[in-house]
Structures are given as structure tokens and as C-alpha cells.
Amino acid sequence: MVREHITVATNKHGEKGLFVNRDFKEGETIFGLEGNIARHPTKYSIEVGDNEHITDELGQCLNHSCKPNTKIERTKKEVCATRDVAQGEELTFDYNSNETEMASPFRCRCGSKNCQQFIGGRKARD
Fold first, then answer.
1. How many domains, the chain?
2. What is the largest CA-CA distance in the chain?
3. Does a structural domain hold residue 104?
4. pTM summary value
């Protein structure tokens, strides 16, 4: 999967983030997740199935937002746009909607009107 349209840069929170070098349409695949699969989550893995967590070089820089512009297509191991994404925009996904349990839970500071406050995965919300 082509990845040259993605740049790792520092976001407004001073963290590494992923930024796109071109526009993407809603539903379009932005990049595929590649890497080793583990049975347990790590701070930098992305859940792609039951007891399947992939550690991807780019994916580990994909930050959380309570108002994300991407989602994880778990069975395809792809990051897809949930709305149109403009060139220069940071890519984000909702960790709570994708991850069952976070290896490193944290307090959210995304600033969204509907901020979930605590990011710990689906188990922490139930």
C-alpha cells in the first residue's frame, strides 16, 4: 500500500502525528496497516481483530480524537476516511471505538464538544 502521501510531523499538542499530503474522499483507504501481530495490546499497537494487535511504523503515530476523520477497517487492516480529509490535516481515530482495552489509558485533550474525557477502550466505557 502506498504511503508517500503521509508525513509524520509534530501536532498542536507537541506529539508526533500523521498528516496527509493530498485530499482524501470519505470512504477512501488512506493506508494499510503493516507489521507484526501480537495477542495483547501495547502502547503503540492498533487492534485489528480479537486478540490481534498490529504495531505499524506509521500507525503508532495515528492519534486519538473524539471527533476523528478516520476509522480502522479491522478485517482489511486499513485506515479509511470517515469524511473528506483535506491536504495538511492530521489523521485521527477514536481509540475507544476501536480498542477493546488500552495498554496505556489516558485523559483526552482533543477539545471536541463531545469529548469522552477518558480513553481506555470499550471495556472501560462499559
1. 1
2. 39
3. no
4. 0.93
Q: pLDDT tens digits for 42-85?
A: 999 999 999 999 999 999 999 999 999 999 999 999 999 999 99
Q: Which amino acid, residue 64?
A: H
Instruction: Take residue 117 and report the three cell numbers written for it.
Output: 474525557
Within a domain: 72: yes
Q: Where are the alpha helices (DSSP H) in the chain?
A: 95-98, 122-125
Q: What is the CATH number of the domain that holds 31?
A: 2.170.270.10
Element (H, E) at 96: helix 95-98
How many whole angstroms separate alpha carbon 40 and alpha carbon 54? 9
> Which three-class secondary structure state does DSSP give residue 97?
helix
Q: Provide the grid cell at 16.
A: 508526533
- The C-alpha R_g of the chain, in whole angstroms, comes to 14
The closest of 73, 71, 3 to 31, measured between CA atoms, is 3
Taking alpha carbons only, the member of 90, 46, 45 closest to residue 65 is: 90
Count the neighbouring beta carbons within 10 Å of the beta carbon of residue 61. 20
Query: What is the residue whose three cell numbers read 501495547?
Result: 42
